[in-house]
Amino acid sequence: MTTTTNTSRRHFIVGSSAIATGLAIGFDLSFMSAAHAAMGTGTSAMTPLATPEIGVWVVIKPNDDVIVRIVRSEMGQGTITGLAQMVAEELECDWKKVSYEYPSPAESLKRKQAWGSYSTGGSRGIRTSEQYVRKGGVAARMMLIQAAANQWNVPASECVAKNSIITHTPSGRKTSFGKVSVAASQLEVPKDIVLKDPKEWKLIGKSVNRIDGVADKVTGKQIYAIDLKFPGMLVANIKESPVFGGKVKSYDAAKAQSMKGVKRVVQVGDTAVAVVAETFWQAKTALEQVNIVWDSGANANVSSASIKKMLEDGLNADDAFVHNENGNTKDAFSNASKKVEATYFYPFLNHATLEPQTATAKWTADSCEAWVPTQDGEASLAAVIAASGLPAEKCNVYKVNLGGGFGRRGAFQDYTTQAVNIAKQMPGTHIKLIWTREEDMTQGRYHPVMMCKMSAAIDDKKNVTGLNMRLSGQSILAAVRPAVVAANKGKDPLAFQGVEPIGEHGITYSFPNLTIDHAMRNTHVPPGFWRGVNVNQNAVFIETFMDELAEVTGMDSVEFRRKHMKEFPRAVAVLNAVADGIGWNKPAAPGVFRGVAQMRSFGSYVAAACELSVSNGNEVKIHRIVAATDPGYVVNPAQVARQVSGSFVYGLSALFEEEITIEKGAVVQKNFDTFGSIRLSQMPKVEIIIIEGGGKDWGGVGEPTIAVAAPAVLNAIYRATGKRLRTVPLKNSGFKLV
User: The dihedral of CA 590, 548, 732, 437: what is its sign?
Assistant: First the structure.
């Protein structure tokens, strides 16, 4: 049976902009699929999903193989395995027989978004899926048991499932999942679903082996989007205006058009030119011979210096959006015996995914398909629909393994749009668009630039009576989701990650008088969601300042934090864990100095303590880091440990090496020689402490601990050198990691 959708093109494009915000899309768990068929869109056909379906999440083959539907993206973090573990836990199946498949976003659209949100970012892959995927596992188990009970003509309440076997307890009769799967697929999905108590978990919480083909990644067999090949496929390379907001004024393609392998030189929108050729190298070489004249527009004279001046003005401006406030900080500062102030700077950062942006598209007058390395299949589908000019039911996106995301391939689908726009100019041909590294570096969606002024009022008894935190810098949401900013009366709540009054990014300190506000200062450089986002700089600001206040008030850094964290026992627990792990109350080895930091973000409580030494006044050697994380619940401890350890690579690279600067309106850094990351020899040993604090909500894992890497190290560097370093990256202050 062929199923169709009456969802309009405009409705889906608008709806997907909401999906990309991380809003959980409602779905009808009881929606049962008919036999899968092609979409009926001319030459476009969907990859058939496996059957028989037990609900929408589980397929069980006659040989007892279990296929779990996964819509979140795998970027090496282990999300696929974790989600499958949760389904398998509730299903009570044999883990050794579990594999997975991706339902396409077009299929989900047909089924009224039956699989929920496809967006994988903000550490949401598991924590915002756990409820409904676990329910999918429960529902499938109940249906399998009911099918077996029907065959035996016994009450389902007398039957239990375990390890893919259903047993009728009174008689001892047994059958396998595979033997009743077809009958189960024909049953109505139950509505009354009860999840297991965490105390009953047998698979959740275990470090089981991953199911996403790790061996193929190690051996090089894994096919990424950049590796795709189709018969007759052509390859495109593109160059966009180096100044954001600029346009193509004119271009001369005569020389390029005559070069070997070149098929066409095309303009893409009003901002870019692309060459389509038989190979990537032919396209790249030919594009270098296209004489493009750019109209750089109004941003041609913007520089890092002018941007910083704008941010500095915001530090003392009267216009600011207050987001976290209690007491009366003005009175606290008026009555203070002493005032402490510190100003910080945090730069633009690129995602620098190992695989540059790429997508493959094929367009005809009757269909449009795209193969995309995406963090959000629905956002990709929305981009394809918008660019193709075709109805939603004539478009499809196939998710391909991606070589890194970090936020670049989620809400931002510029590369997908470009691929479709090029394919439209060569109908019926697969066009694989590949950006050069230089294009990827200079056409990013960058971590927002930010400055901060931290101020504290201290009374004659050395108590902190008031704290003021003024942020001055870019708003991501003002550029990407202006409707959210408008709904908040001009304020970007995302700018306050880690220092919000309540919630998953809530501050974990209490002061009698507190004001945290944001002077929004937007630039022409497009901002984006960079792994960890705003909590990264906010942790540097507040956690290094806490160390300064501890010193001014004559307290130990850990004790000072504990004094102001009494209302947050889970935060205190991770702080205590790293302090104990690093041996905080014991003397360090000669020449070794320690630093500590803690934070709450993405629903998790995290802390880090480090030991380092500094030689020749500027050469930093980090000997070890102790990291604690409490996400509430842990699905796969080994994956959590890998994520936490890997996050320090990201955090330390940003601290020491990485920045994006602007000259004449354009990005200066072009490749990894000027936008570096730490090397394997520089990476310290990371000791992981996992705490399961429980609670109602699940926290994230992949992003929270990035934030505490930098402030822990900065606090230790101060103890080693007596220098407070408040500008990132540290290479600009002459410090390097050895």
Answer: positive
The angle formed by the CA atoms of residues 444, 737 and 402, to the nearest 5 degrees, is 35
Q: Is the peptide bond before 52 cis (omega within 30 degrees of 0)?
A: yes
Cβ-Cβ contacts under 8 Å for 502 (sequence gap 6 or more): none
Residue with the two structure tokens 């907001």:
245
**Cβ-proximal residues to 142 (8 Å cutoff; 6+ apart), any chain:** 156, 190, 193
**Mean pLDDT of the region 205-228:** 93
**Phi-psi map region of 42: left, alpha, beta (phi>0 left; psi -120 to 50 alpha):** left
Residue among 519, 394, 342, 303 nearest 40 (CA) = 394
Return the CATH fold of 304-349+446-737: Aldehyde Oxidoreductase; domain 4 (3.30.365)
pLDDT digits (tens, 9 = 90+) for 561-576: 999 999 999 999 999 9
Contact between 274 and 238 under an 8 Å Cβ cutoff? The reply is yes
Whats the size of the chain, residue-wise?
A: 738
Cα separation, 333 vs 341, in Å, equals 12
Domain boundaries defined on the chain: 9-212, 225-297+357-434, 304-349+446-737
Residue 334, number of CB atoms within 10 A of its CB: 10
Provide CATH code, domain 9-212: 3.30.365.10
The DSSP result for 228-261, as a single string, is ---TT-EEEEEEE-SBTT-EEEEEE-HHHHTSTT
Whether the ω angle into residue 684 lies within 30 degrees of 0, i.e. cis, is no
> Can you give 461-516 as a three-state secondary structure string?
CCCEEEEEEEEEECCHHHHHCHHHHHHCCCCCHHHHCCCECCCCCECCCCCCCEEE
Measured in whole angstroms, the distance separating CA 185 from the mean position of its chain's CA atoms is: 35
Tokens of 429: 């041909």
Which helix or strand (DSSP H or E) is residue 719 part of? helix 706-721
736 - beta bridge partners? 619
For the cut 50, the answer to whether the pLDDT of residue 449 exceeds it is yes
- For domain 225-297+357-434, the CATH class is alpha beta
User: Which structure tokens are listed for 553?
Assistant: 């008030």
Q: What is the pLDDT of residue 47?
A: 56
